[in-house]
Design brief:
The structure is a single chain. The protein has about 260 residues and is an alpha/beta fold. It has a single domain, classed as Rossmann fold. Helix content is about 25%, strand content about 25%. The strands form three sheets. It has a seven-stranded mixed β-sheet with strand order 3-2-1-4-5-11-10, sandwiched between helices. Helix 4 links the parallel strand 2 and strand 3. Helix 5 packs across helix 6. The radius of gyration is 18 Å and the shape is globular. Bound molecules: S-adenosylmethionine. The site of S-adenosylmethionine (SAM) has 21 residues, from loops. S-adenosylmethionine (SAM) binds next to loops. InterPro entries: Methyltransf_11, SAM-dependent_MTases_sf.
Length: about 260
């Protein structure tokens, strides 16, 4: 099976068309999803240390910057979106470095040097970046030997845009997760939240094997994995069946790989 998405001539683009909506939802410090689930899982695997250099690829408005700075590491965020980067620079001042650039072409950025980062993160961005292989080759280029890379994404086995969803089994009185398609990579246009005609972003579904294969092809060996449920976000008085489904079917997947 090919691991390449359909529409290979399309590459990912910036979220500037939806920047106002995204900044309103997430801000420069991240949404509730970021703070309660995604950033803790990413920190657990990435473990940035004092004095290290961390690159956040597809950084948006900088939701990951505070956690890295609090750990005492130096932070560089890269994103295609000029509006998002401008917002991040305004929010963080000189405490963090934010660069406009293409995640699939990091070696073309004059501000970056090869093998100069101890750790690299894709926080909820890898599924919005295409081609995957070029993004991971770029990240591998930026990492020092022995450097850590973490991909934190919506779980590709259970959360396939437009091809998965919740269902209710009346006989067993349980909520189940339905998966309609999985193995075929897809480029899925997402809901338009931005300025008319500019706001449609694209999400790239790939099966798990596509991530592990592309990591391995770039000398990145997976050594840890976390599956994160949405239980911490459960509303009070949530019906038991829904709570069980929320606890059992993971929302996020985090994969760590080490550069050989
Ligand atoms: C869902 S947002 C996540 C942003 C941020 N990491 C966060 O968690 O708030 C995905 C980001 O990927 C960026 N992006 C998409 N393609 C890109 C590319 N080729 N190079 C750099 N950034 C890209 C978009 O501009 C957008 O900011």
């Amino acid at each position: 099976m090919s691991v390449h998405t359909k529409n290979r001539n399309r590459t990912s683009r910036s979220w500037d068309g939806v920047a106002d909506w995204y900044i309103g939802w997430s801000g420069a410090e991240g949404s509730r999803h970021h703070k309660r689930l995604a950033i803790p899982a990413l920190m657990e695997l990435l473990q940035p240390r004092r004095g290290e250099a961390v690159i956040d690829i597809g950084c948006g408005a900088g939701a990951f910057a505070s956690a890295v700075l609090e750990a005492g590491a130096a932070y560089t965020g890269v994103d295609l979106g000029q509006k998002l980067i401008a917002h991040a620079r305004h929010h963080y001042g000189g405490k963090a470095r934010f660069l406009v650039g293409d995640a699939t072409r990091l070696p073309a950025m004059p501000q970056l040097r090869p093998a100069s980062f101890d750790a690299a993160a894709f926080l909820l961005s890898i599924q919005d970046i295409d081609p995957l292989e070029d993004a991971l080759a770029s990240a591998a280029w930026a990492l020092k030997p022995g450097g850590r890379l973490v991909l934190l994404m919506t779980h590709p086995c259970f959360r396939i845009p437009r091809q998965s969803g919740w269902g209710w089994d009346e006989g067993r009185r349980l909520q189940f997760r339905r998966v309609d398609r999985y193995l075929t990579p897809l480029a899925v246009p997402m809901q338009d939240y931005g300025e008319a005609g500019r706001g449609t972003t694209r999400s790239y579904h790939r099966p798990l094997e596509a991530y592990v294969s592309a990591l391995a092809a770039n000398g990145l060996a997976v050594d840890a994995l976390r599956e994160v449920s949405g239980e911490d976000l459960a509303p009070r008085n949530e019906p038991k069946a829904m709570r069980l489904a929320r606890e059992e079917i993971p929302l996020f997947l985090a994969l760590r790989a080490i550069k050989s």
